[in-house]
Specification:
This protein is α+β, with helices and mostly antiparallel strands. It is built from eight helices and seven strands, in the order H-H-H-E-E-E-H-E-E-H-H-E-E-H-H. Strands 1, 2, 3, 4, 5, 6 and 7 form a seven-stranded antiparallel sheet that branches.
């Protein structure tokens, strides 16, 4: 449908707020022109989505030609890569309903059900590198809550190398555009014979040499080896027009091979 008087209509609209400042002869022409063309424009807009074969909702969708959005599996590989190259994350738990704690803690009495997130060490060690190995300190709040029955979330984010190459634009290394994810599960003690068989303590101390001071049997704090048994994975790969955002099935998470992890590269990492 052609709007032959569209320029004139735009003029009428642009001066509409100053209507009474214009001559009387100008007003009727704009009125007639306005009714005819506004109606035509409205009908045209209603039929535009059908004409191009799309619903109005498409404007809220990712444009398929702007960026290639990684698949769920590719996102799982990226997440496992981050788990492998990082070693510090935020361990979140929830305070239990019962308040069975020492008065020496000076803990407030209204924390039941409140979440708390604290930084902790971890390492991706065999035989289950997809379930982070943790050196649990019994006196620490996170592990008190976990032993009281709290579910646990370990949250990680990707930190590009300091000497990373320049980005394509100002958003390449924006924290809002970098991948991050949370592992939801529970804490499970690791039997000492499994620790010895797979060298899990050695793996952990390679990432955290100073943590040797807190190994089980130390004279400072009671400690024990544990793993986070991952039940759910929530992933934010970056901006929604170029990254997958959503849940990664735990089977997909566990199914990523160490070879895939070793060959994967995240933004800013050197390509071999």
């Amino acid at each position: 449908m052609e709007l032959s008087n569209l320029p004139a209509l735009q003029l009428c609209i642009s001066v509409g707020m100053y209507w009474y400042h214009f001559p009387v002869w100008f007003r009727p022409s704009c009125t007639v022109l306005g009714f005819a063309n506004v109606l035509s424009a409205f009908i045209l807009l209603l039929n535009l989505p059908a004409a191009i074969g799309q619903s109005p909702q498409h404007i809220f969708s990712n444009h398929p030609h702007l960026h290639k959005i990684p698949t769920v599996h590719e996102s799982a590989v990226q997440a496992r890569r981050i788990l492998n190259i990082s070693s510090i994350a935020t361990l979140s738990t929830v305070f239990p309903d019962h308040q069975n704690f020492s008065p020496l803690e000076n803990r407030p009495h209204d924390l039941s059900g409140a979440p708390i997130g604290l930084i902790d060490y971890y390492a991706a060690c065999d035989p289950t590198p997809y379930e982070p190995t943790i050196l649990a300190i019994s006196i620490a709040t996170s592990f008190k809550n976990a032993r009281a029955g709290s579910n646990v979330t370990l949250s990680l984010r990707y930190h590009p190398p300091i000497n990373h190459p320049p980005g394509e634009d100002i958003y390449t290394y924006s924290p809002a555009n970098l991948p991050r994810f949370s592992l939801v599960g529970y804490i499970e003690p690791i039997p000492s014979d499994q620790v010895r068989t797979y060298g899990m303590d050695r793996c952990f101390f390679e990432r955290h040499p100073e943590a040797v001071a807190w190994k089980p049997g130390n004279a400072i704090h009671d400690s024990w080896w544990a793993r986070l048994v991952v039940e759910q994975v929530y992933w934010i790969g970056g901006f929604g027009d170029r990254a997958y955002i959503g849940w990664i099935p735990v089977e997909e998470w566990r199914g990523v091979t160490q070879q895939e992890v070793g060959h994967a590269r995240l933004v800013g990492e050197k390509i071999y």
